[in-house]
Amino acid sequence: MAMCVMILKGVLPKPDIVVMADTGRENPMTWDYLEKYTGPMMAELGCPVEIAPRELAKVDLHGHNGDLLLPVFTQTGKLSTYCSNEWKKRVVDRYLRSKEHKQGTRWLGLAMDEQQRWKKHHNKTEGKWTTVCPLVDLMLNTDSCLTIIDQFGWPEPHHSACWMCPHKANAEWRVIRDNHPEEWKKAIAIDSEIREADELGGVFLHKDRVPLESADLDAEETPEVIRQCSLGMCFV
């Protein structure tokens, strides 16, 4: 969102194309924000936010080999985040190719304080694409980005994430539970579904390793779950 504001102000150049991947499970707050704020402004600038549809993903909850793609909590640890690669990165790549964008520079909106995410991608070339993180070059951290958004007159955006993402802290789960009952029911259903197909001895969406519907979301927070969605492909 901060990058969009800086494009409007001329701090960053106007991109050729702006793409967001639709995982089919994005937080409703993300779509609301896009509809009310980011979408209209980017369209007015002549570079509307294009949506890479969910249908471009070749797998859903499980990979072709049957492995669960979600970063769920197990009895002994936590699985890696494979869903971002399948639902976002590859989807965006396929969409760009369909639009005849086969090489160039790709921007990721990762801030300076997200080093564990941007250091894997910043100024790296893969095939005919070079990835850069403009916020890192501008030395802007998350708080600086939120200040830019606030000074522009926009409300603070929620994290872009799936409504059943195991990376959520309790406060984020409460937002889904208290404000989006349909998504909450679907998250509970997925939590149950993955255990029915599980061979690891129990997998869970919630960090307490209990069924989501019985998790104490109002408990005092332990340190926030580390966000391991390292691809940064929520909004490209």
Molecular structure report:
The chain is of the alpha/beta class. The protein has one domain (about 1-215): Rossmann fold, CATH 3.40.50. It has helices at about 1-10, 30-45, 85-100, 115-120, 135, 140-150, 170-180, 180-195; strands spanning about 20, 50, 75, 105, 125, 130, 205. It has a three-stranded mixed beta sheet. A two-stranded parallel ribbon has the order 1-2. Helix 2 (about 30-45) links the parallel strand 1 and strand 2 (about 50). Helix 1 (about 1-10) packs across helix 6 (about 140-150) and helix 7 packs across helix 8.
SSE layout and pairings?
Blueprint lengths: L1 H7 L9 E4 L6 H17 L4 E4 L20 E2 L8 H16 L5 E4 L7 H4 L5 E3 L2 E4 L1 H4 L4 H11 L17 H10 L1 H16 L6 E2 L32
Parallel strand pairs: 1-2, 4-6
Antiparallel strand pairs: 3-7, 5-6
Adjacency order of strands in the biggest sheet: 4-6-5
Using the coordinates shown, work out and report the CATH topology: Rossmann fold
Low-confidence stretches: none
| Strand content range | 5-15%
The total of beta strands comes to 7
Overall mean pLDDT = 91
Q: Which CATH class is shown?
A: Alpha Beta
Summarize the structure.
36% of the residues lie in helices and 10% in strands. The chain is an alpha/beta fold.
Task: Based on the model shown, name its key terms.
single chain; 236 residues; alpha/beta; Rossmann fold; 8 helices
